[in-house]
């Protein structure tokens, strides 16, 4: 069965149309001459809740072409079925892999429990150099070791899913070293996770793997009760612990963000590598 995949928007992880794969489209259907003839189904895949209206519109637009049955789905609409498998290159570009879905935590701000109900599920490991699991370190030791064994054959390995700092262990570090992990992204979503970040910093710095810039950190900002001052303190704290921060502004389940001028200035500073480096230099935060 040949599936034509449609996406509301292009992101860094969206599949890219190639000569080998001409069944990827962003947005509305093009002229008929650009649509492959061997299409069995059309899947409109929506990853984020704020793209649902656009996904619904696109489904109608592609249905009007009368090419093949159109199915509207994706994480934001139907979640992930309990028996699903990850197919490289189908809904994420080649190189990105998912070896597990779900998370044992139930954080109030996170959409993972909604799109992956039933808790953590370990999947068959498919090759890829960018690991986008919801909570890789929550998996069994056997699974984690198998994932890193696969990564040893990959180049420019990036752990981009947001590793849970509290679950990092000393035995993980030889795996980081053997896989030559280029970058590992941790998550600092709540102020009360600071102690876990301190602990993770100690574990990382105890390893020969650690170098400035290799340990990175997503920092959730802009949620109810947060302020630019509080958020900046968390970013600076992460810098001092040896993590390169990347601020992520909170969205509610409808995708809404409340950004005033002050928050926009904040994001301009804490989302741009050059600005972050300048801030670190200004504060005298060294590279050790």
Number of helices: 9
What is the mean pLDDT? 90
Kindly report the CATH topology of the largest domain. Answer: TIM Barrel
Beta-strand segment tally: 12
Biggest sheet overview: 6 strands, parallel
Show unreliable segments: none
Supply the CATH superfamily name of the largest domain: Aldolase class I
How many independent structural domains? 2
Strand content: 15-25%
Distance between the termini: 53 Å
Share of helix among residues?
25-40%
- Architecture of the largest domain, CATH level 2? Alpha-Beta Barrel
Strand order of the largest sheet: 5-8-9-10-11-12
Order of helices and strands: EEEHEHEEHEEHEHEHEHEHH
CATH class of the largest domain: Alpha Beta
Structural class determined from secondary elements: alpha/beta
Protein name: Elp3/MiaA/NifB-like radical SAM core domain-containing protein
Organism: Cloacibacillus porcorum
GO molecular function, one term: catalytic activity
Summarize the structure.
With 288 residues, the protein is α/β, with parallel strands linked by helices.
Overview of this structure, please?
One of its GO terms (molecular function) is iron-sulfur cluster binding. This is Elp3/MiaA/NifB-like radical SAM core domain-containing protein. The protein has 288 residues and is of the alpha/beta class. It folds into two domains: 3-76, no CATH class; 79-283, TIM Barrel (Alpha-Beta Barrel). Helices cover 30% and strands 19% of the residues. The chain has helices at residues 52-63, 75-78, 112-115, 141-151, 172-179, 194-205, 228-240, 261-270, 273-283; strands at 3-7, 24-26, 41-45, 70-73, 96-97, 100-101, 121-122, 130-131, 157-164, 181-188, 215-221, 244-249. A six-stranded parallel sheet has the order 5-8-9-10-11-12. Strand 10, helix 6 and strand 11 form a beta-alpha-beta unit. Helix 4 packs parallel to helix 5 (172-179). The model has no long low-confidence stretch (mean pLDDT 90).
């Amino acid at each position: 069965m040949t599936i034509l995949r449609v996406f509301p928007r292009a992101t860094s992880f969206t599949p890219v149309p190639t000569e080998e794969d001409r069944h990827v489209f962003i947005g509305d259907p093009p002229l008929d001459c650009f649509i492959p003839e061997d299409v069995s189904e059309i899947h409109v895949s929506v990853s984020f809740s704020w793209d649902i209206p656009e996904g619904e519109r696109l489904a109608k637009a592609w249905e009007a072409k009368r090419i093949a049955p159109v199915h509207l789905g994706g994480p934001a609409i139907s979640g992930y079925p309990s028996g699903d498998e990850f197919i490289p290159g189908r809904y994420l570009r080649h190189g990105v892999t998912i070896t597990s879905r779900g998370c044992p935590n139930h954080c109030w701000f996170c959409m993972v429990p909604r799109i992956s109900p039933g808790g953590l599920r370990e999947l068959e490991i498919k090759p890829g150099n960018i690991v986008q699991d919801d909570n890789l370190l929550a998996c069994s030791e056997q699974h984690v070791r198998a994932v890193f064994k696969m990564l040893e054959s990959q180049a420019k390995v990036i752990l981009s899913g947001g590793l849970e700092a509290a679950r990092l262990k000393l035995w993980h570090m030889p795996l980081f070293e053997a896989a030559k992990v280029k970058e590992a992204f941790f998550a600092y979503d709540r102020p009360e996770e600071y102690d876990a970040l301190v602990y993770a910093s100690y574990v990382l710095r105890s390893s020969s793997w650690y170098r400035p810039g290799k340990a990175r950190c997503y920092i959730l900002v802009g949620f109810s009760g947060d302020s630019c001052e509080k958020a900046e303190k968390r970013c600076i704290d992460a810098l001092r612990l040896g993590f390169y921060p990347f601020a992520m502004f909170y969205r509610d389940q409808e995708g809404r963000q409340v950004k005033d001028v002050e928050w926009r200035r904040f994001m301009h500073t804490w989302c741009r590598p050059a600005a972050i480096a300048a801030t670190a230099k200004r504060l005298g935060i060294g590279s050790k």
